[in-house]
Write a structure and sequence with these properties.
By secondary structure, the protein is mainly α. The chain has one domain (9-116): Arc Repressor Mutant, subunit A (Orthogonal Bundle), CATH 1.10.10. The protein is 46% helix and 8% strand. It is built from six helices and three strands. A three-stranded antiparallel beta sheet has the order 1-3-2, with helices on both faces. Helix 2 (21-32) packs across helix 4 (57-69) and helix 3 crosses helix 4. It is globular, with a radius of gyration of 14 Å. The mean pLDDT is 83.
């Protein structure tokens, strides 16, 4: 996908959730990453994220924990997948005759697949 729509309210949402800088930076990296699928699922790559964000790995993982706690993401560390639930609504939201379910077939995690399917 070459373009992406991220609504400006995301900054207010992150402020209201009291997310720190690491979580905010990680969230923006996830939603703009070319590695995030059309289902809104990205691989968990803390070393890569730390390099791109100029942070250390423990700080990045703490940011991921904060995003999970605030329900900005659903992560399954066992399968190495993270879902950004808002991604779908921002970028597709039922437009183009697309359904998120059409894009979750490659997801390994039952937890992520269920969250992506709205179950």
């Amino acid at each position: 996908m070459d373009s992406l729509t991220v609504p400006s309210r995301v900054w207010r949402d992150m402020h209201n959730a009291e997310l720190g800088q690491a979580a905010r930076a990680l969230f923006m990296l996830l939603v703009t990453s070319p590695h995030t699928s059309q289902a809104g699922v990205a691989p968990i790559t803390p070393d890569r994220w730390a390099t791109l964000l100029a942070l250390d790995v423990p700080t990045v993982l703490a940011g991921l924990d904060d995003l999970e706690e605030a329900r900005f993401v659903v992560a399954d560390r066992a399968t190495g997948e993270v879902l950004i639930p808002a991604f779908w609504g921002w970028n597709f939201g039922g437009r183009y005759g697309m359904r998120r379910a059409d894009h979750v077939h490659e997801v390994v995690s039952d937890v992520v697949r269920a969250a992506a399917s709205g179950r």
